[in-house]
Amino acid sequence: MPPDRRDEVREALVAVVPAAIAVIPFGLLLGALAAQKGLSPLEVALMSATVFAGSAQFIAIDIWTEPAPWLLLTVTALLINLRHLLMGASLAPKIRSFGTGPSLLALFTMVDETWALCEQRSARKQVTFSYMVTMGAVLWVNWVAFTTLGAGIGALIGDPSSYGFDFAFSALFLTLIVGLWRGSRTGVAIAASAVVAVIFHLLFDGPWYIAAGGVAGAIAGAIYGPRHEAATEAAQ
């Protein structure tokens, strides 16, 4: 392996380890819940390997019945993952140099954590295929392994909240938000996203608040950013 690629892999491993640790209790819990619905460890492994979307999998397990409501499961998964359209669009200019095949592979492994970490990195240096796919591969292997393990022993752990593990995701994403801070434009986007998400969560059942918050943040950033830049240039 060339030295520069080795450095990219090492930096990716350092960046992704906290996220990999944070998802362990939730992987075990998802596996345990899936087992309670009648899924075998092999079926859980296949679901995690092909879907690779924790929030969508939790929702799917929650509404899982026999026979499985495939249409409802499909629509729900698409709805809750609509944010990936925005995430992919924001990363597209940064990974254009990958080529079609590598880009598709990198985007398959893209989750909230890898997207945020790549956005952080893009502010300092170029996002490389080695960097992005290493992070994605670590989280993919980690998620498949611990959801599968959870199908066998996760029930023994019980509710992560009893250990305080339920705050792990919140702490992780708060840290990621701090790393993504780019001034007032970031604050406006975060505030708009949070307000709209809370309103939708209170008014509508289902995961509509996830997509609504993401769209609201994107629109707020797109509107405020150019105006703020224009005002700054005029003041100089």
From TrEMBL:
The chain crosses the membrane at residues 12-35, 67-86, 129-157, 163-181, 188-204, 210-226. It is found in: Cell membrane. GO terms for cellular component: plasma membrane. Signal peptide: none annotated. InterPro entries: Brnchd-chn_aa_trnsp_permease. Keywords: Cell membrane, Membrane, Transmembrane, Transmembrane helix, Transport. It is a multi-pass membrane protein. The keyword Secreted does not apply. The keyword Mitochondrion does not apply. Belongs to the AzlC family. This is AzlC family ABC transporter permease.
